[in-house]
Amino acid sequence: MSKTNCISRRSFLRTGAVLTASSAFPFLRVAGQVSPNEKVNVACCGIGNRGADVVNGLFGTGLCNIVAVCDTDLGAKHTQNILKKFPNAKRYKDFRKMLDEMGNQIDAVTAGVPDHAHFPIAMMAMGMGKGIYVEKPMAHTFQECALMMAAEAKNKVATQMGNQGHSDGNYFQFKTLVEQGVIKDVTKIVAHMNGVRRWHKWNGNVTSLRPKQDLPEGLEWDVWLSQAQWHDYHRDYVHGDWRCWYDFGNGALGDWGAHIIDTAHEFLQLGLPYEVDVLKMTGHTDFVFPMTCTLAFRFAARGNMPACEVQWWEGQKNFPELPKNFGKSKAAADIPTVGGGATAVADLNPGKEIYQKDGTIFKGASHGSTLSVVGGGRELPKFPKSPSNHFKNFLLGVKGQETCRSRFAVAGTLSQVLTLGCIAQKLNRKITLDTAKGAITGDKVADAMLKGPPPRKGWEQYYKV
User: Nearest-CA neighbor of 221 among 208, 236, 231?
Assistant: First the structure.
């Protein structure tokens, strides 16, 4: 029996034992039974860079204890601040061992790890009845998103994807504008993120995977790869560069699309597109994302809402045509730097323009940024203030006091839209989707990419709900 299966079986048996023991020993913590007066016990996977931000964000609410930390490279420099801040948290390099050993002490889990590794952490956590917070995008493939939504529904746990604008002004304003009929009859949305990305340094000249390098001491490479097909270690796969590669990341679209398109997708009920078209691409390769790309996602009419095209513009100097009197979109304070530089790119911040049948055009930046009308001269309705930031909303969801605003049932379909865009980028051609069946038609290669390569041996169990 493989180590993975042993861990899974022990976890199942231990969870069952805890459920039985809790009747006799009411002080024993059981997932999903957090008292409103208790703090949530959180185990954190990925504790460097953005993962560290997630740990600090949750802890900063005052609603949780950090009881365990997990990172495949615990000795790395970028993990040290969290290790020093939480010296009493138990330390692991393998999330499976952590959950197996500490299942009865944990209420919720975080996944601040590379895109491809969100899925197994989330599936194991949900299967054990734990709340789960994952960074965006929700998962690496269309199928993984579907399975995570199904696991959420089956296990009835609190879930949250880390697009924090879903708990800020952007969310509450968009919701109010749609409910009051101010945003209506939207026919086109132009979304853009034109900053430098990590793969731009290679100038579209990647013609193969990287050659094998010596594995750094202390890095658990097998766990880092998780269910992904085997790749020999190379430094260009780690420390954020994983986002460059189709095999591990979801590019600029997965990174920023979840922040820019999110509220429009939810409140305009866009669902899945019937078509994703490649309007422009430069620097295409089979391995890393392109230098520039413009995609068109085409959504059918929904009820009394018309058909809508969502355009995505990425890459330096790949700017969409802006409406007259555009001015500038104001960036929100919660937007991180782009590629280590300023968030503003020329005169255009990452953001979107929303076009309506009546000629009204709204503009907004990313994350929590609110909308305004192009050309000004129109005061928009006031909207409610958020009762909780994204981290507090998740923890209150675990405690049963709020509904998570970017739960998998909401974020899952948006993330599937983003994975479809990544397929079109990799293949550099239009794809057509049967939205009812969730299948790409007329293109067997593209349709197979909805699932991606089969999981490596020992990781298959996470693909069952």
Answer: 231
Give residue-wise pLDDT tens across range 116-163.
999 999 999 999 999 999 999 999 999 999 999 999 999 999 999 999
The count of other CB atoms within 10 Å of the CB of residue 355 is 19
The answer for residues whose C-beta is within 8 angstroms of residue 84's C-beta and 6 or more apart is none
Euclidean distance between CA atoms 43 and 45, whole angstroms: 7
Type and span of the H or E element at 258: helix 251-260
For the segment 108-114, the average pLDDT, to the nearest whole number, is 98
Q: How confident is the model at residue 33 (pLDDT cuts 50, 70, 90)?
A: low
Kindly state whether residues 284 and 371 are assigned to the same domain: yes
Domain count along the chain: 2
User: For residue 133, what is the domain's CATH number?
Assistant: 3.40.50.720
pLDDT over threshold 80, residue 7: no
Which residues, 6+ apart, have CB-to-CB distance to 110 below 8 Å? 42, 43, 44, 45, 46, 51, 54, 55, 58, 132, 133, 134
Residue 137 sits in the same domain as residue 232 = no
Domain range for 288 is 167-384+414-448
Could you tell me which of 442, 458, 197, 209 has the C-alpha nearest to residue 337?
Answer: 197
For residue 137, is the peptide bond before it cis, meaning its omega torsion is within 30 degrees of 0?
yes
Banded model confidence at residue 377, pLDDT cuts 50, 70, 90: confident
What is the distance between the alpha carbons of residues 343 and 268, in angstroms, rounded to a whole number? 27
Give dist(CA 282, CA 25) in Å, integer. 63
Shared-domain flag, residues 242 and 282: yes
Look up residue 341 and give its DSSP letter. B
Placement of tokens 């393998």 in the chain: 94
How big is the CA angle at 31 (ends 30 and 34), to the nearest 5 degrees?
Answer: 85
Q: Report the percent of the chain where pLDDT is more than 90.
A: 86
| CA 124, chain centre distance (Å) | 17
Contact present, 150 and 465 (Cβ < 8 Å): yes
